[in-house]
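Backbones bend. To wit:
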Amino acid sequence: MKALKKAVIGLLLISTPRFRDLGEGTEQGYFRERKEQAADKLRQRLDFAETVFPGVVYTRQEVKNAIREFTAAQVDMVFAMFLSWSDDYAWIRFLRDMPPVPVLFACIAEDTPGFSDSFTEDRFVEFLSKGGLVGSLEGSGSIARFGRPMTGIVTGELDQVLAKAKSFALCAAARSQLKDTVFALLPSYNEVMWATYVDPYSLFMNAGPELRFLSVSSLEDEIAAIPAETVESAAARLLASYPHDDDLQMDKMYASIAASLALESLARKAGAELLVLNDVDVSLLTRIGLRPGFCPCPGADDVMVVPEGDIGCGLACWLLGKLSGARVNFIEPFYIHPQDNTFAVGHAGPQDYTVPNGKTRISLDTRFAKSSYKYAGAPFAWHLIGPGQKTMLHISQSGGSFKMAATVVEALECDYFLAGYSHGILRSDLPAGQLFERLMRFGVTQHYALAGGDWRRELAAFAGLMGFEYLEL
């Protein structure tokens, strides 16, 4: 998939014109000069994003200019802060007139006030200059009155505020990018798993992506167009990169690779970053003769493929991939080991076998090995989930919108034990039974995205921006 673009932040720094020209001839200069220096220091620390800064806002006209600049630049979010004691007419115009966009309202506590008393003109101006808490408290009343969605508030020392701003910006960028993304479904939802169904209109309206529907016949045509030498080259790279069973049937492996290459090609032609494949669809299995087992294909990383027609979990995989910048596994919990509070997870079918720290072996798709399909038992990339801290994320339909559930687990070292299923062993800080009871009370399905690291702070922020129900465990 494409990497998440760098966030574009509109920087709205508000002060009062009443103080603007105070401080003439003082050691630290005019009030306005002090505020310009403060703004420059803040911009330097926002180096994780591109910033659009119209200058410190003092007047009604200046806030109108700022709104125009932010809108023209299509900022992903606005970082708003009162730099001092301030009138609020600029702020309330921003709240009223700025188009809907995530806004992080910040108040930064200085390490030291920068003055010991206000007995001199210089120290008095510095006292006025450091009155951002007063302005922030005043501004918060208008936030409550206007009730704009997608508005966050953070107060703390500079590093704390910047950490929150970085997470907020990452989620705002993901929100923007999601609205320009295309998902594809081939060929249909999984008709035995209705809980995973997603309303395409709701997906577009509440989450952002456009959903395009692809057919098995188009996949057949795409497979036929894949050159034999392309398939053979991919097979050679796979066999050179991963251990494999000794009894592989190369005609079946070529068929699986060709179908995998065709899936990715078909998704590209549809403009899709994510292809949700119903890999147990009868028409797919009878006409193609197998379920593709090598996505991502060697040399490709622009298309994500997930199984079982679950668009909600596809969205979860897309989101975790964007936030983490890492590869993602598609899993379902299989069973609990009460003795050591672990649970087995994994999934059959398409799986990102290139996730770092895991193990991959090319083996037979034993789940279908005894079927009557043309390429029964065709090889696939059998992946074992690697050890380490992981975030487990669920997304599914919830009424007219969506719900998210996130928890952090530890993946344990283990060896292969489930033939035909990419899999692993996880442990939660919560007792496993309690974890799954709380998930069931929230109302989830069986599918989850799994990625390295703890991304709960970002996921909570994203759910807030999107208006999704959110459960954190």
Summary: The mean pLDDT is 92. The longest strand covers residues 401-412. Residues 8-178 form a domain with the Rossmann fold fold (CATH 3.40.50.1070). The radius of gyration is 27 Å.
